[in-house]
Amino acid sequence: MTRVGVGASTWLTMGMLVFAFGCGGRDDGDRRMPRCGDPGVICVDGGPDTGPPTADGGGTDAPSDSTRTDTGRPDASGGSCDIGEPCTSTRGCRISTRCVDEISDTIGGMGDEIVGHPSGVTSIPQTLFTGGYCTVVGIEGMGGCTIGDDSTCCEGGGAVCANAGTQMGRRVTFCVAACNPSTTSNPCRDTYACDLGLRGCVPGCATDDECRIYRADTNRDGRIEAPAAGAMAVDRLTYDTESRATCNRTTYRCEHPAGPGMPHAGIPCERDSQCEENGDCISEAGSEGAWPGGYCIKFGCDLPGVTCARGGHCQERRVGVHVCLQDCKVADHGMGGMFAPHATCRAGYMCAWDGVGGPSAMVNGGCLPGNFNDVRTPNVGAACDADSDCYSPFGAGGCIEPWGTEGYCSIFDCSAPGYPADICGSGAVCVEVDRETSFALCLDTCTRAEDCGMGLACVPIDMTGSMRVCAPACSMDSECRMGQRCVIMPGEMVGECR
Fold first, then answer.
1. Residue 469 pairs with which residues in a beta bridge?
2. pLDDT in tens, 204-248
3. Which domain holds residue 189?
4. Per the structure, how many domains does the chain have?
5. Which of 73, 332, 377, 417 has a Cα-to-Cα distance from 172 of 20 to 30 A?
């Protein structure tokens, strides 16, 4: 999504949703739902379009034993989590978090003027973090929280770790208060919205204008870039004159009617107004080509009263949150076989199994970006730098990076209905890595760690130990290379060969 106002969905930076082929991940024995960081799972980026939250203002933060209890959140208990509570730079927060002070700013202005506003204005005022907002913000792993591990915000729940973009190649993360979204009420503080994808409380919209402004790929280079501080904008803020979006003053989320024609999930798009009712556009430029032609999507289809337009399929598996995707049948590639385009998904898209429908179902998945290339020889376990290096029948192959100390070619969801039993090729097997969702990966077999890539162990996958595969997690020294040990950190069940 390319909208740049402060409507809640702005903070779910749709243009940065990407397949986690490059996100890494491992089977660490924790039988949970796949999440960001796991191979083959979509990573939902919760960061703002304009960069990380503003740094802490002047003054002294309150000590961790402060007795302040005005949480400002309906569900706050005054316990060990103060994420999302109101604050000021002088009063600070109850716990060792950072106070992002209330910010008075504008959308647009000198050097980055809004183009095409009906009233001719080139900027509109906005207020961010009304009343202040307690958070944890920093570089992931260096003071910031860890994406996919919300306990790094607050132990015991109450907060969500979100992505605020990158800085010098490292992810900047911040914590937001967790919430259960509703279409009719607001579980967050006044002026904050419960984002349907992030399921966290973020600054909401205040005016309809904020919901109708987006950053266009003005120079048509396939990327949408906000200007650096002090620089003139090349990709311009643009008022969508076709948009009828409004700011819901109860939920503080932007809403819009359906676009022209009969739009549904999966159609090409450049802006939200082209999608179904309250749908979002992942533009091709905003995702730097990861979603060819752009893709209309819709969040919150699991909520009462929220439905997918005809041709859409509500799916959580392989996404992490419930969204409307274009419906499809897994492995339906017509007469062209498993390397041909899918029969109903657009070019560049594959059909990801929803985990419910069997091989006889007419619809059992949703269209997501796939990996279609010219590699025709199975190469599971091969080192790789990009998805294009890997064998990818049905568009389902890709490079897990890192997997050990380098990229690793695999085929995702290899046990999906309609895939052949030998899809992994010789010397590799399809291994279930999440029983709850039946998610499986192709892994190469081994007899010792030296058969595997660097940083990988040779681990058993059956009770007898007769079948072993290469994986980045170990449980004993004998699974590692000669001279290495399996280092298991306190509280963990598996470790890494070092």
1. 445, 459
2. 999 999 999 999 999 999 999 988 877 899 999 999 999 999 999
3. 1-255
4. 1
5. 73
